[in-house]
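Hi R.,

As promised on Friday, here is the backbone we talked about, encoded as structure tokens. Could you run it through your design pipeline when you get a chance and send me back a sequence?
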């Protein structure tokens, strides 16, 4: 074994002792430090430095093992709570994350097309809490490592989440002295999703371990993409079916000189992609004087939400 190998082995033995190892946590730290040093050595050797000198420079760059251990301890998670507490916190984190995804899925069905406003708002409310609740993910600057504080924060955020979506803003003053609360709420609503999305991003940045951070981002973006993909497919099918229905309506109108009735549409129209389409006429006229109509479809993702094709060519969502 060369002198360099002996020095590297002695360095990691001293570092392990300073970290209080061997144990699983210590082994993880040692593996990360070794991987970083080996990457430095490879880079130095690629630039022409010999192996012995490259290792010497790498070890000198991280400093003495005792000092490195002190700095590393501040980045290590505290001792884990009891197993039943860990399980409880994990279950709560899954429930919070699942609730947020369910709300995002439901709100997405209420309209047509992607709007980042609502996902940003719901993510900002749910993702930080889920990450802070899950044991061993975020611990630096994390008051929620206390289970009691975490439970209180859970109640507060759940109350804010449901209260904000089910309350109305009313003024107790008369018309002359009314406080413009609605305008204030609109202003807050404009910036709140961005603020909460920033909070979610900050919480992700607070995750100390790069592997966990990448895993959280992959799961979050992957689940959001899956939710959006479901609705995009659904809306693409509706666009195709609506175009087919409009062609049928236009052909019937050309032949008879009048729009078909809803009953005729229900009895005679043959769907191509989607069933359960409904046709309605309106006494209102288009700008060119033609009668207006609309094609409705109850979404498969949420039966109480509809996609509507208007005769002016626009598609909207209806809650």
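Update: got your reply. Pasting your designed sequence below so it's all in one thread:
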């Amino acid at each position: 074994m060369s002198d360099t190998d002996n020095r590297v082995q002695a360095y990691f033995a001293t570092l392990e002792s300073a970290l209080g190892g061997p144990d699983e946590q210590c082994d993880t730290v040692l593996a990360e430090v070794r991987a970083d040093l080996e990457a430095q050595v490879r880079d130095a050797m690629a630039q022409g430095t010999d192996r012995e000198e490259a290792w010497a420079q790498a070890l000198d760059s991280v400093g003495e093992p005792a000092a490195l251990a002190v700095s590393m301890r501040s980045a290590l998670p505290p001792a884990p709570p009891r197993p039943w507490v860990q399980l409880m916190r994990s279950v709560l984190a899954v429930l919070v994350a699942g609730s947020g995804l369910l709300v995002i899925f439901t709100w997405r069905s209420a309209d047509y097309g992607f709007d980042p406003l609502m996902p940003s708002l719901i993510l900002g409310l749910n993702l930080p809490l889920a990450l802070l609740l899950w044991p061993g993910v975020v611990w630096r600057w994390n008051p929620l490592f206390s289970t009691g504080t975490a439970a209180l924060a859970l109640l507060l955020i759940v109350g804010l989440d449901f209260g904000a979506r089910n309350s109305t803003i009313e003024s107790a003053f008369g018309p002359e002295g009314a406080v413009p609360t609605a305008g204030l709420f609109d202003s807050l609503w404009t910036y709140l999703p961005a603020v909460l999305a920033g909070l979610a991003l900050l919480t992700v940045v607070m995750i100390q371990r790069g592997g966990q951070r990448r895993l959280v981002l992959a799961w979050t973006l992957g689940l959001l993409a899956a939710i959006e993909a479901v609705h995009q497919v659904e809306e693409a099918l509706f666009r195709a079916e609506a175009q087919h229905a409009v062609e049928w309506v236009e052909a019937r109108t050309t032949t008879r000189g009048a729009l078909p009735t809803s009953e005729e549409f229900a009895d005679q129209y043959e769907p191509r992609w989607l069933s359960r389409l409904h046709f309605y006429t309106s006494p209102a006229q288009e700008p060119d004087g033609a009668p207006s109509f609309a094609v409705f479809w109850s979404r498969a993702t949420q039966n109480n939400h509809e996609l509507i094709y208007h005769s002016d060519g626009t598609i909207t969502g209806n809650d």
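One thing I noticed while checking it: The radius of gyration is 30 Å.

Thanks again,
M.
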